[in-house]
Amino acid sequence: MTEIMSPLAPRWFDSHCHFDFAALDHEREQQWALAQRSGVSGLLIPGVHRQQGEQLAAFCQNQPFYYALGLHPYFLSEHNGDDLCWLAQALQQPDVIALGEAGLDWVLAATSEQRQQQWFWFRAQVALATTYQLPMILHIRGAHDEAASFLRQQQFRYGGMVHAFSGSEQQGKVWRKLGFRLGIGGAMSHPRAQKLRRTVAALPLDCWLLETDSPDMQPAFWRGANNSPASIPLLAAMLASLHNVSLAELAACLEHNLQQTFPRISARSEPDTAE
Predict the structure, then answer these.
(1) 166 and 141 in contact (C-beta within 8 Å)?
(2) Domain 12-266 classified CATH 3.40.50.2300?
(3) pTM of the predicted model, to two decimals?
(4) Where are the domains of the chain?
C-alpha cells in the first residue's frame, strides 16, 4: 500500500546532499522513497570536481534534484588548469543553480603551499560566480574571517550558502550581512555540540537552511551506515525546538530562505503555464 503525505504536512528540502556519491548506490532508491514519505520534496547536489560535475545534469534529470558545479578544496590533487575552462563553460547552462562547492579548509592545509593552492581555486571561482552572477555554495573550515573578508573586498553580491556552518554567532552575522545563509544539519544533534546549538538558537531563522551532507555528517540519532535526506524532518524538529516555532512556521521560513538564496530553484519550481 502506497503511503500518501497529507497536503497539510510540512514540506522540506535538503539544501546540500551528495546523493550521487557511490556510497549510496546500493540504497539510493530506498532512501529517496523514505525521504519523500517523510516530506522531503527536493534536494540540491553540489559539484566537487570536474569528473563528478560532468555527470550531474544527467543524474538530476526527471527528478526534483537540483545541482551546482564547483571545484572543492578536498580534491586539490585532481584539479588542473583546464578545469577552470570547463567550469566557465558549464556554468552557462541554465539549470546550474549555483557555483560550488568551493572554499577554504585550513584543517586540510598543513602547509602554506596548500593554503596558497586553495586560495588560487577559491579566488578563481569567486571571479566566475561574479561573471555569471551566481550564488556560491561555500565549504569553509577554520577560515571564516579570511573568506568573508575576501568576498567583502571583492564586493561579491550574489550571496549563497555557507555549508555545514560551525563558526561563531558573530561570524554568522557577518555571513548573513554578506548575503549568505548558513547550512545546518547533523552536527547540531550531537551531545557535545552545545556551543553550536546556542549559536543556532541565537541567530534568526532567516539565517538558516537545512542540509544533510549525505552520505556524511550522520546525526546522533541516525543508525544507518550512510546519512540520508530522510533525516531532514528530524533535523527540522530540532531546529524548530531551538527557535520555539511550529514545524509549519519553520517550513515556510526555510522555503523563503531557499528561494531567496537560490533564485533558479524558485524559477524552476514555478508551474509552466504555457500551452
Answers:
(1) yes
(2) no
(3) 0.94
(4) 12-266
